[in-house]
């Protein structure tokens, strides 16, 4: 079943405080609202703000949303080892799983075969001499692999949420994530 066919979509972004995953989840919530979904977006941080495991979560539906918390993610993204270990257990059987393989080196046994290991942090650092737009790169990969909505909706949402001084770099990071996902999907064929 494709993600577009789901009555309700549950998404979990997990990482460490300071990696921008909450901003990424807010941007994705904006994208889903623009695509006509009803959306609830929430976040959770560990006791330690920077470096502690944290998550951004989204529930989206074309109908009324009655759940207030993500229980079984259809999409799971992990960009730190600690957050991956903490938040992966309850994903759905065929969830789309996207892992930053540069930072998550001990891959748990997932209940899904729909797993993409992409070295986001490393590629972004090589490309931009900065890791700041890593969160936008994984949004690009998720946009490509989920095939939920048109990429243009992501670009418009990024432009609304990212400061103009770094918008060009972030749009290039989004394109890099799309390209990485396309290569990974081709390798899986």
Uncertain regions spanning at least 5 consecutive residues: none
Spatial separation of the terminal alpha carbons: 18 Å
Might you state the CATH topology name?
Answer: Pyruvate-ferredoxin Oxidoreductase, domain 3
- Looking at the overall shape, the CATH architecture is 3-Layer(aba) Sandwich
Count helical runs. Answer: 6
Going by helix content, strand content and strand pairing, the class is alpha/beta
- Estimated share of beta-strand residues: 15-25%
Order of helices and strands: EHEEEHEEHHHH
* Mean of pLDDT: 91
Shape: globular
Strand order of the largest sheet: 2-3-1-4-5-6
Number of domains: 1
Summarize the structure in words:
- With 189 residues, this protein is of the alpha/beta class.
- It has a single domain (3-188), classed as Pyruvate-ferredoxin Oxidoreductase, domain 3 (3-Layer(aba) Sandwich), CATH 3.40.920.
- The protein is built from six helices and six strands; from the N terminus they run E-H-E-E-E-H-E-E-H-H-H-H.
- It has helices at 21-34, 81-87, 120-128, 134-146, 151-161, 167-188; strands at 8-16, 38-45, 53-61, 75-78, 96-100, 115-118.
- It has a six-stranded mixed β-sheet with strand order 2-3-1-4-5-6.
- It is globular and about 45 Å long.
- The two termini are 18 Å apart.
Name the features.
21% strand, 6 strands, 189 residues
Task: Please provide a brief summary of the model.
The chain has 189 residues and is of the alpha/beta class. The protein has helices at residues 21-34, 81-87, 120-128, 134-146, 151-161, 167-188; strands spanning 8-16, 38-45, 53-61, 75-78, 96-100, 115-118.
């Amino acid at each position: 079943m494709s993600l577009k066919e789901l009555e309700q979509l549950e998404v979990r972004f997990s990482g460490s405080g300071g990696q921008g995953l909450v901003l990424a989840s807010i941007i994705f919530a904006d994208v889903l609202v623009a695509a006509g979904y009803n959306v609830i977006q929430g976040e959770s941080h560990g006791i330690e703000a920077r470096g502690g495991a944290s998550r951004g979560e989204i529930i989206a539906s074309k109908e009324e949303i009655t759940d207030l918390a993500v229980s079984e993610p259809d999409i799971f993204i992990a960009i730190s080892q600690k957050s991956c270990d903490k938040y992966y257990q309850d994903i759905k059987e065929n969830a789309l799983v996207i892992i930053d393989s540069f930072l998550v080196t001990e891959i748990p046994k997932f209940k899904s075969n729909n797993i993409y290991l992409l070295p986001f942090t490393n590629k972004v650092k090589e490309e931009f001499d900065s890791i700041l737009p890593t969160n936008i790169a994984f949004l690009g990969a998720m946009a490509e692999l989920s095939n939920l909505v048109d990429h243009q909706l992501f670009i418009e949402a990024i432009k609304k949420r990212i400061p103009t001084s770094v918008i060009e770099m972030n749009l290039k990071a989004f394109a890099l994530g799309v390209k990485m996902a396309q290569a990974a999907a081709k390798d899986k064929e």
